[in-house]
Write a structure and sequence with these properties.
The protein is of the alpha/beta class. The chain has one domain: pyruvate-formate lyase- activating enzyme, CATH 3.80.30.30. It is built from eleven helices and 14 strands. The strands form three sheets. It has a seven-stranded parallel sheet with strand order 4-7-8-9-10-11-14. Strand 1, helix 1 and strand 2 form a beta-alpha-beta unit. The relative contact order is 0.11. The model has no long low-confidence stretch (mean pLDDT 95). Bound molecules: iron/sulfur cluster. Iron/sulfur cluster binds next to loops.
């Protein structure tokens, strides 16, 4: 069982202590075996322990910066939501293919924002602009928010906030099973709780530091029993020896474990493994021993929307993947919606 995250080192921006959450985290960490430092800004977090980049990267992933969110302009998050709502950035997980490695560059530490009222106020403006249309907010664009929420309860606050809103919906995805504190949140069915799942083999070799498949499925069961709308992102779908059996077993275990009421409103999102040249470089730097297959000659190129070539599976391989999932998901979950395969 992967333990719930506890930072080894916590930085506090002075202003964070003026907020109840900042003060509560400071008091909590003071009583735990966590080194606390002050910093005027997260940009000052330079002297992380470690003799080289490899060690510094690992220390950064167990460092939490408690600060304020200053940019209250939200990024768009198409197609699954209108906006990304920023409660945290960074993640303690060590998934070899994590997109944060390229987006967070030299600052892979975790940041949590204590000025949640400001963030909700900004969300309110976005909802007003679009009303009477509903506005969907995605909370996991820049972090695995569930992974730190047992410490902050920011996500719980957001779930309850959107539970009360008339025109807002919340969604997020996680690879962590530490969901117990979220089960009694007053969500009013306005939050879609998604789990990222994968075949056992893929999680074991490429997702260190995250919850195992069986733990994620058990957590999904609890979430379903708490009446949240539920969804699964199967990503990245990765071809490995025995992949058909691996994914088939994963789907069967899920179907056996989930209560039938959850199966009436389930969503699936399917994303094949892909990489770019910059991502390959950073993966090989951060995880030099990785067994992740990153051979361009075995892939097909696809022009990405960020103006860079992506390497995806060949048409034939994609067809084989689709055949498995498009046959098995409707068979095991007849009422589920497959939102996309990409
Ligand atoms: Fe990245 Fe998600 Fe893995 Fe965290 S859990 S390292 S955000 S892929």
């Amino acid at each position: 069982m992967v333990k719930a995250f506890v930072p080894q080192l916590a930085y506090f921006e002075p202003k964070a202590l003026e907020y109840p959450l900042g003060k509560a985290l400071y008091d909590k960490f003071s009583k735990m075996d966590i080194e606390i430092r002050e910093t005027t800004s997260h940009n000052q977090v330079r002297n992380l322990p470690g003799d080289n980049d490899f060690q510094k990267y690992r220390h950064a992933k167990s460092t939490l910066v408690v600060g304020l969110r200053k940019t209250l302009k939200f990024d768009t998050s198409k197609p699954s939501a209108e906006y990304a709502i920023p409660f945290a950035t960074g993640c303690m997980g060590h998934c070899h293919y994590c997109y944060l490695q390229t987006t967070m560059g030299s600052k892979p530490y975790i940041r949590t924002y204590v000025n949640t009222e400001d963030i909700f106020e900004a969300a309110e403006h976005y909802m007003e602009e679009r009303h009477p249309e509903v506005t969907r907010f995605e909370a996991s664009c820049t972090s695995d928010i569930v992974g730190i929420d047992h410490l902050t309860h920011t996500l719980k606050e957001a779930i309850e906030y959107f539970g009360q809103s008339q025109y807002g919906l919340l969604r997020f995805v996680t690879k962590f099973a530490h969901v117990d504190h979220l089960l009694d949140a007053n969500h009013q069915g306005r939050t879609r709780f998604r789990f990222s799942i994968n075949a056992d083999f893929v999680i074991k070799y490429f997702e260190p530091g995250t919850s195992r498949l069986v733990e994620r499925i058990e957590a999904a069961k609890k979430v379903a029993e708490a009446d949240y709308p539920l969804g699964f992102i199967i990503a990245p779908i990765y071809l490995h020896e025995g992949w058909r059996e691996g994914y088939q077993t994963m789907l069967e275990n899920l179907a056996e474990t989930l209560p039938s009421k959850a199966k009436a409103d389930l969503t699936f999102e399917l994303i094949q493994h892909r990489f770019t040249a910059p991502a390959k470089r950073v993966i090989q730097k951060n995880y030099p021993m990785t067994k992740l297959e990153l051979d361009e000659s075995k892939r097909k190129t696809k022009w990405g929307r960020y103006g860079i070539w992506k390497y995806v599976y060949t048409d034939q391989e994609q067809e084989e993947m689709k055949e498995l999932f498009m046959t098995q998901i409707p068979k095991l979950f007849p009422k589920a919606t497959i939102e996309y395969f990409t």
